Automatic annotation (TrEMBL):
Organism: Frondihabitans australicus
Statement: the UniProt record of this protein carries the keyword Glycoprotein: no
A GO molecular-function annotation: DNA-binding transcription factor activity
InterPro entries hit by this protein: Tscrpt_reg_HTH_GntR, WH-like_DNA-bd_sf, WH_DNA-bd_sf
Key word Methyltransferase present: no
Top-level taxon of origin: Bacteria
Protein name from the UniProt record: GntR family transcriptional regulator
Residues annotated as domain HTH gntR-type: 10-78
Keyword tags: DNA-binding, Transcription, Transcription regulation
Length: 117
């Protein structure tokens, strides 16, 4: 959840950028997750679309997200090359499990067993 403080000395685009970056770093926003469109997020937060667009541009410049034209803005994998590959594989597995109608608990159980946990 993103909240902006209109009384803060920090500009809204920076508040937005910092919160999204923190969600990426914490894993709350997983690699491959699609961010809301600029217009939708601006409407949700009650701010100008240019404010969201600036935050997205800076997040892209910092390597947190990538914009794929009509496919939207997606969270990039973070960390070492190995960690990036694991994040991308996890996103692909999660997408496939959801497409097959498998619940998150069942899918996680398979992963835990595969990892020997």
């Amino acid at each position: 959840m993103i909240t902006l403080d209109p009384r803060s000395a920090t500009p809204p685009y920076e508040q937005l950028r910092v919160q999204i970056a923190a969600q990426v770093e914490s894993g709350e926003l997983a690699a491959g997750s699609k961010l809301p469109t600029v217009r939708r997020l601006a409407d949700d937060l009650g701010i100008a679309p240019n404010t969201v667009a600036r935050a997205y541009r800076e997040l892209e410049s910092d390597g947190f997200v990538e914009t794929r034209g009509r496919n939207g803005t997606l969270v990039r994998a973070q960390g070492s090359a190995a960690l990036q590959q694991v994040q991308e594989a996890a996103r692909a597995y999660a997408d496939r499990a959801a497409k097959l109608g498998v619940s998150a608990d069942v899918a996680l159980g398979y992963v835990a067993r595969a990892l020997g946990s």
